[in-house]
Design a protein that fits this description.
By secondary structure, the protein is mainly beta. The protein contains ten helices and 50 strands. Helices cover 11% and strands 34% of the residues. The strands form eleven sheets. It has a nine-stranded mixed β-sheet with strand order 10-11-16-12-17-18-19-20-21, with helices on both faces. Strands 22, 24, 25, 27, 30 and 32 form a six-stranded antiparallel β-sheet that branches. Strands 1, 2, 3, 6 and 7 form a five-stranded mixed β-sheet that branches. The longest helix has 20 residues, at 244-263. Mean pLDDT is 91; it is low at 1-21 and 102-112.
Length: 902
C-alpha cells in the first residue's frame, strides 16, 4: 500500500551510533548532499494502494516515506530533531504492520479460532434498490484535454466512461464515480505507479471498474459517469494531503463540464448526447478509497470554497451534491462534511485500508453542525477492499490485479481467507456493493424514505445483495438529543476511555485486544482530546454503568432510544438492560438488548458498534419526564462480559429535508523560510478562515523534537487571527537539517476543515561539511577490528551521518561472510555467514558513521573473527553513497586488509 498522505517526508535525525547495525534488518540510512535518508526495503512486494505507508519510531509517527519504483523500497528524509533516537522502528499501513510477520502468539490465537459463522440473515426490506430498473442503457467514453492541478508537475487526464438511460424523459440525476489509488500503468504482468505512462505501457482503466454499478443506476434513470484519476495517483505521494484537494478539483472540473453540456447539449461529447440530459441539481458522488476522501472534499469545496491557490477549479458552483457514497475510504484529514448525507461502506476483510478509518465519516460528524444529515456506516462482512472495482479483481481486470487481504501461508484466517464461511466471492461482493450504492442514491437523491431502513440501523437487508451479511448503523437524520461520551459527561460503574491514547490504562482498547476498532482509527497524533467512549466490564451481572450528561436531555416525542454498542468479536449473547432517569429521580427500565460480536480475528477491524433500539414507552408509563432526562444506565445481565457504548440518541423515523448550514471553513498553509545567518525571526503559521459565523476547532501543535502534540480549543471567526501559532527561527552559519514545525486542526463545532495540516519549515541555508576518512587500523590480524576515522571539515549544528556501502575490491582476495563477526553481519543485514561468499555479494551491507552535533569526527569499525584456515591477505572496500544509496563515484572510501593470524 504505497500510500502517501498528510505527513511531510521529514523525521528526526538519529542520535550518535557507530554504524547502522543497530537498525533492524531491512533498514538502512543513506547519506547524500540532501542529508541522511532513512530507508526500508520490504522482502515482499508492497502493492500500490490507498492506505499510506508510515514510518514509526517508539510508537510515534516519523513521517510518510516516498516509494521507489521497485515496489519494495521506501525512503524518508531525516530532519534536525536533535536527541531523537530511531528506536523500535516499524512500518505501518492502514492499521497493519508491514515490516514484521505476525507474532507467533497471534498465529496461535488465530489457529485456535474455530471457523467463524456469519451473522444470521436480517429480515428483507420492503423495497429492494438493487433490482434493475426499466430503462435501457447506453455506454460510451469521452477524453478531453488534460488539466494542470496545483502541486502536480504532469497534467492530469480528463477521461471518463458514461452509462446513461435511453428513452428517459426530462433531466435525470447525475451519479459521478471516482476510483481510488491503484497502480497507473502496466505491461503484461508488471504494473507501476508512473505518470505519464512510459512508452510501451498502457494506463490501467480503473475508472471502468464500476460499470456494473453504473448500469444498475442507469437502468433506474440516473445518468452516470466514472472518471479516471491515474494522473493524480501517479503523483500524490508528494502531496501533503495525499491528493484529496487534487481529486476534489478533478471532480469539480468534470461537474463543470456537465453543467456546460446541460446548458448547451450540442457541445457535449457523443457519449453524453446519447442519453438523457443530466440534472445538476441532483448529484450523487461515489468514491472508492482515496476517491472517497476526494469526493468528500469535493462536496465540502462545493459548499465552502477552498483557497484559490490550492484549487484546480476556478468557476461558479452550478451543481448541488445531495449525498455521497464512500467505499472503503481513507480519511487522512478526519474532516467529514457534516451537512451532506453519506453512506460509508466498510469492508470487513479490507487488506488495504484495514483499520476501516472511514467510520470517521460517521462518528466525526457528531455535534459539528445541525445533525440533520443522515450519516450511515455499512459494514459488509467478508468483503475485501479491491473487489468493489472489477478492474482491481483477478479474472475480471484488464491489468494485473490481486486479492488485497494479505495471505499468511502459515495460518489461515478464520474470517477472511478465501473459502471460509464469512468471506465473499468477488461477484457476491460487487452485487452487495451495487445494491447499497443504489440504496443511497434512492434515499439521498430520489428522496424515497422507504429504503432508509437499509442504511439507518433498522436491521433490514437488500435481497439483491445475495448472501452478503450487511449491517448498518447511523447518526443524524431524524435523531434528536444524544448521550455523547465526547461531550461533558460523567460515568460511574464503568470508565470513560480515550479512543486514541498511548497509555493502555486510558485507551479504550488495550493490548489484549484481538484486532482493532474502526471507531478508534488513529489520526496524526498519538493522543487525541475529546474522542471517547464508555467502557463497561463486569464479572457478575447487575451493577449498572451510569452515564450523566452535563445538562438534561429531551427525548420527548421519540418512540425509541437508539444505542450504538459493540462487544468483543465472536462473542455471543451479551445482554444489557437499558434504563433512563429524569431530574426528579424517576427511573424506568426500557427493555433488554442482546448484542453479538462481529466475526473477527487479529487481522480485522471487528470492534464495530451494532445499533440497538429500545422503546421509550416504559418510561412514559413510569412517569419519567422525557423532557428532562439526566441519566442513562446499562445494566449487565450476562454473567461476565465487556461492552463499549459509542453514543445513544432519541430515535425518530423519517428523513428530514436537508439545508446546509453556513459554517466557517479553516485551512492551514505551510511557510518555508531560510534560517539566515544571524538573529532570531518569528513567523506565523498561515491560517485561512472563511465562511460565515463562528465555530470551534481543536488545534494541535507538534513538537519537532519529541513528536508530542499540545492541543487547545479555539473559537474561530472569518477575518480574525484566532489560530495564532508563532515559530521562532534562529539564524546561524553552521550546517543543520531543515526543521519542520507542524500544526494540525480538527473541526469541533460550527466548522469544516479543508487543509488540516500546515506549519513552518525552517530551511537550512548553510553547506554541509565535507567528509574525509583515514584508517585507524587499516591492516589488522584476523580477530581484530578494522577501524577508520571519519572527519568533517567543520562542526555542524546537527548530527551528520555518512553511509558507506560495500563494493568489490579492486585487487586480490576479498573478505568473506565467514571472516567477520556473524552477529555483526546478522544485525547489519539479517544475512547469515553460510553459504560463504564475498562481502560485496551481501545485499545492503554497509556501515554508518554518525558525527554528533558540535564535533568533527567519529570512528567506525568492522569486527573480524579468527579461524584456523590458512589464508592469504584479504581486503574489504566500502564506498560513500549518494542520495539513492548507490555508491558515489569518487566519494570517500573505507579500505582495509586482514592478514592470517598464523
Amino acid at each position: 500500500m504505497t500510500g502517501a498522505s498528510p505527513s511531510a517526508a521529514h523525521a528526526a535525525a538519529p542520535s550518535p551510533t557507530a554504524h547502522d547495525t543497530s537498525l533492524p534488518p531491512g533498514w538502512r540510512i543513506d547519506r547524500g548532499d540532501g542529508g541522511p535518508r532513512l530507508v526500508w526495503r520490504s522482502a515482499a512486494d508492497v502493492p500500490m494502494g490507498d492506505a499510506r505507508v508510515e514510518f514509526r519510531s517508539a510508537g510515534r509517527l516519523l513521517g510518510v516515506p516516498a516509494p521507489a519504483r521497485d515496489g519494495h523500497t521506501f525512503g524518508l528524509d531525516l530532519d534536525a530533531a536533535h536527541g531523537t533516537r530511531l528506536t523500535d522502528l516499524q512500518v505501518w499501513s492502514g492499521g497493519r504492520r508491514l515490516d514484521a510477520p505476525a507474532a507467533n502468539d497471534a498465529r496461535e490465537r488465530r489457529d485456535a479460532l474455530a471457523a467463524v459463522p456469519p451473522p444470521a440473515p436480517l429480515p428483507a426490506a420492503a423495497v429492494d434498490p438493487g433490482k434493475p430498473g426499466a430503462y435501457r442503457t447506453a455506454t460510451g467514453e469521452y477524453d478531453l484535454p488534460p488539466v494542470r492541478l496545483p502541486g502536480f508537475k504532469a497534467p492530469v487526464e480528463m477521461r471518463a466512461v458514461v452509462v446513461t438511460p435511453t428513452g428517459a424523459r426530462g433531466p435525470r440525476p447525475l451519479a459521478l464515480f471516482l476510483h481510488g489509488r491503484h497502480a497507473t500503468c502496466y505491461k503484461g504482468e508488471e504494473a507501476t505507479g508512473d505518470w505519464p505512462c512510459p512508452a510501451g505501457t498502457k494506463p490501467i482503466p480503473s475508472h471502468r471498474g464500476y460499470l456494473r454499478d453504473q448500469r444498475l443506476l442507469a437502468s433506474q434513470g440516473y445518468v452516470t459517469v466514472s472518471i479516471s484519476a491515474n494522473g493524480i495517483n501517479g503523483q500524490d505521494w508528494a502531496a501533503e494531503d495525499g491528493g484529496a484537494q487534487a481529486r476534489s478539483s478533478l471532480v469539480r472540473l468534470h461537474l463543470a463540464r456537465w453543467a456546460d453540456w446541460a446548458a448547451h447539449p450540442s457541445a457535449a461529447p457523443a457519449a453524453v448526447r446519447a442519453g438523457a440530459k443530466a440534472d445538476l441539481g441532483k448529484v450523487l458522488l461515489v468514491g472508492h478509497s482515496r476517491g472517497g476522501e476526494g469526493v468528500n472534499r469535493a462536496a465540502m469545496d462545493s459548499l465552502y470554497p477552498p483557497p484559490a491557490a490550492q484549487d484546480g477549479y476556478r468557476g461558479p458552483v452550478r451543481w448541488h451534491v445531495r449525498g455521497t457514497v464512500l467505499i472503503g475510504p481513507t480519511v487522512f484529514g478526519q474532516n467529514p462534511v457534516p451537512d451532506v448525507p453519506s453512506a460509508t461502506l466498510l469492508p470487513g476483510c479490507d487488506g488495504d485500508v484495514s483499520d476501516l478509518q472511514g467510520e470517521v465519516y460517521v462518528d466525526g460528524t457528531r455535534g459539528v453542525s445541525r445533525g440533520r444529515a443522515l450519516h450511515s456506516a455499512v459494514y459488509v462482512v467478508g468483503a475485501n477492499h479491491n473487489f468493489f472495482n472489477s478492474e482491481w479483481t483477478p479474472g475480471q481486470a484488464e491489468a494485473p490485479a490481486e486479492d488485497d487481504f494479505w495471505a499468511d501461508p502459515d495460518a489461515k484466517d478464520p474470517v477472511c481467507s478465501p473459502g471460509t464461511a464469512t468471506r465473499l466471492t468477488a461477484d457476491q461482493q460487487h452485487r452487495a456493493g451495487s445494491a447499497y450504492i443504489a440504496a443511497a442514491a434512492r434515499l439521498f437523491v430520489a428522496g424515497d424514505d422507504r429504503v432508509r431502513e437499509l442504511l439507518d440501523g433498522t436491521g433490514r437487508r437488500a435481497p439483491s445483495a445475495g448472501p452478503a451479511r450487511v449491517l448498518t448503523h447511523a447518526v443524524g437524520g431524524a435523531r434528536g438529543a444524544g448521550f455523547l461520551p465526547d461531550g461533558g459527561v460523567t460515568v460511574t460503574g464503568g470508565r470513560l476511555c480515550s479512543a486514541v491514547d498511548p497509555r493502555p490504562a486510558v485507551a479504550c482498547l488495550g493490548e489484549d485486544a484481538r484486532g482493532v476498532s474502526p471507531h478508534f482509527a488513529q489520526w496524526e497524533t498519538g493522543r487525541e482530546t475529546g474522542r471517547r467512549a464508555v467502557e463497561a466490564r463486569w464479572s457478575a451481572p447487575g451493577t449498572p454503568v451510569r452515564v450523566r450528561p452535563a445538562a438534561p436531555l429531551s427525548l420527548s416525542g421519540a418512540p425509541s432510544l437508539a444505542l450504538r454498542v459493540f462487544v468483543p468479536p465472536n462473542s455471543k449473547g451479551t445482554q444489557l438492560d437499558v434504563a433512563v432517569a429524569d431530574t426528579r429521580g424517576r427511573r424506568a427500565v426500557l427493555g433488554r438488548v442482546t448484542v453479538d460480536g462481529l466475526p473477527g480475528s487479529d487481522r480485522t477491524a471487528s470492534y464495530w458498534a451494532r445499533e440497538l433500539r429500545v422503546p421509550l414507552t416504559a418510561a412514559s408509563r413510569a412517569g419519567v419526564d422525557l423532557r428532562q432526562v439526566n441519566s442513562l444506565e446499562l445494566i449487565p445481565r450476562s454473567r461476565t462480559g465487556r461492552a463499549w457504548l459509542m453514543d445513544a440518541w432519541a430515535w425518530r423515523p423519517g428523513t428530514p429535508a436537508m439545508a446546509e448550514a453556513p459554517l466557517t471553513r479553516v485551512d492551514l498553509g505551510r511557510l518555508s523560510v531560510k534560517e539566515g545567518d544571524t538573529g532570531v525571526r518569528t513567523y506565523r503559521v498561515p491560517v485561512r478562515v472563511s465562511g460565515k459565523g463562528s465555530g470551534q476547532v481543536r488545534v494541535y501543535v507538534v513538537d519537532p523534537v519529541t513528536g508530542d502534540a499540545k492541543d487547545r480549543l479555539v473559537t474561530v471567526r472569518p477575518g480574525r487571527d484566532d489560530i495564532a501559532v508563532s515559530v521562532r527561527v534562529e539564524g546561524n552559519r553552521r550546517f543543520s537539517y531543515d526543521v519542520t514545525h507542524d500544526v494540525l486542526v480538527k473541526a469541533v463545532h460550527g466548522t469544516v476543515v479543508g487543509s488540516h495540516r500546515g506549519g513552518v519549515t525552517a530551511l537550512n541555508d548553510d553547506p554541509m561539511p565535507k567528509v574525509s576518512v583515514t584508517p585507524v587500523a587499516g591492516r589488522v590480524t584476523e580477530g581484530q577490528a578494522l577501524r577508520w576515522k571519519v572527519t568533517l571539515s567543520e562542526p555542524a549544528d546537527a548530527e551528520i551521518g555518512a553511509s558507506f556501502v560495500v563494493v568489490p575490491v579492486t585487487d586480490g582476495p576479498e573478505l568473506s561472510t565467514k571472516d567477520v563477526d556473524p552477529a555483526w553481519l546478522r544485525d547489519a543485514t539479517g544475512a547469515e555467514p553460510d553459504p560463504e561468499r564475498p562481502l560485496s555479494q551481501v545485499p545492503y551491507l554497509g556501515v554508518w558513521a554518525s558525527v554528533p552535533a558540535g564535533t568533527t569526527s567519529t570512528e567506525v569499525s568492522v569486527p573480524t573473527v579468527r579461524d584456523t584456515v590458512a589464508e592469504p591477505a584479504e581486503s574489504v572496500r566500502f564506498q560513500a553513497t549518494d542520495d539513492s544509496g548507490a555508491p558515489l563515484p569518487g566519494g570517500p572510501e573505507l579500505t582495509g586488509t586482514v592478514v592470517d593470524a598464523s
